[in-house]
Design goal:
It contains 15 helices and three strands. By secondary structure, the protein is mainly alpha-helical. A three-stranded mixed β-sheet has the order 1-3-2, with helices on both faces. Helix 4 packs across helix 5, helix 9 packs across helix 11 and helix 11 packs across helix 12. It is elongated and about 75 Å long.
């Protein structure tokens, strides 16, 4: 068991510290934001699986009742291969640390989901105040697009069941028909990819573990990459120039071309649409996604290796 715990810790530390820092310096995520999002999710899944597997092994070593339940279906040779009876003293401390981490992660996820639900409720209540003729819940009978009387040009996607696309009359007056289609395609790209769940996960992990480089970079990159991915969805259907012009018209009053840090992403998105970076080839894209998908299997292989060896 000692070897398994050490290997799981090494894999988790590698995936949590040096790999995300190297990934943030890479240039290819800007070209393939969807693939980059997949890679980040696989890294997070690897760390969480390492922690979960180490927690299960540690609890089984410390508590005999849990060990009997976990290894009840396994032959005696498998139980002996894990050597849980001779657990090192630090295994109990590691188990306690991982248990606290699991409880804290669950708490932060629950808190983030509850806060997101509260914000959605407030947003829908605000929409009902601005459009009092709408029945409660904003049903799909009113159509997927909700138009609000407001001179402020804006368009956004409100998650829910069903998701609601909201656009103001100021945006309708400012945008051409093709530009409006590009904006709506961008927002529908968010809805179809369920980016809200990914944002909630990244925010909860970064809030709960601000000193873990993987989770902080995962949060920052997720907020950036989901916008690039939605831009690609819109540009594939309506063209890069149309999408860029729509982005400029919709955000011109916010200083889309300024150098302020809060608006820098908007400027980067416009530059990226006007000068699309070269995309990865199909083989490179498939290879990257396949390798990333195999990475979370590493902690599982480490965990089950003693049992598989005993059975063979």
């Amino acid at each position: 068991m000692t070897v398994c715990l050490l290997l799981l810790s090494a894999v988790a530390l590698t995936a949590a510290v040096p790999v995300p820092r190297a990934l943030t310096r890479a240039k290819w995520p800007e070209r393939e934001p969807v693939v980059a999002l997949w890679v980040w999710q696989c890294l997070v899944a690897t760390v969480l699986l390492c922690c979960l597997a180490a927690l299960v092994l540690g609890v089984a070593a410390v508590f005999h009742t849990v060990r009997d339940q976990v290894f009840a279906p396994a032959p005696p040779a498998v139980t002996a291969a894990y050597d849980l009876a001779t657990a090192p003293p630090w295994a109990a401390a590691l188990t306690l640390l991982l248990a606290c981490g699991a409880a804290w992660t669950t708490t932060m996820l629950g808190r983030e989901l509850a806060e997101a639900r509260r914000r959605r409720g407030q947003a829908r209540a605000h929409l009902r105040e601005r459009a009092p003729d709408l029945p409660a819940g904003l049903p799909a009978a009113r159509g997927p697009l909700l138009v609000l009387e407001d001179e402020y040009p804006d368009a956004w996607w409100l998650p829910g069941h069903p998701p609601q696309l909201v656009v103001t009359t100021g945006a309708l007056h400012r945008l051409t028909g093709h530009q409006l289609d590009a904006v709506l395609a961008h927002e529908r790209g968010h809805a179809r990819a369920h980016h809200d769940w990914l944002l909630h996960l990244s925010t909860a992990l970064a809030t709960g573990f601000p000193r873990v480089p993987l989770f902080t970079h995962f949060c920052d990159q997720t907020h950036r990459l989901v916008e690039l991915a939605a831009d690609d969805t819109a540009s594939r259907r309506h063209g890069h120039l149309t999408t860029a012009l729509a982005l400029i018209e919709l955000n011109q009053h916010r200083g889309v071309l300024s150098c302020a840090s809060s608006h820098r992403l908007l400027g980067e998105r416009v530059d990226r649409l006007l000068e699309p970076p070269p995309r990865l080839g199909r083989r490179h894209r498939a290879l990257t996604t396949t390798v990333a998908a195999l990475v979370p299997l590493v902690p599982l292989l480490i965990t089950f290796a003693p049992g598989l060896t005993a059975l063979s």
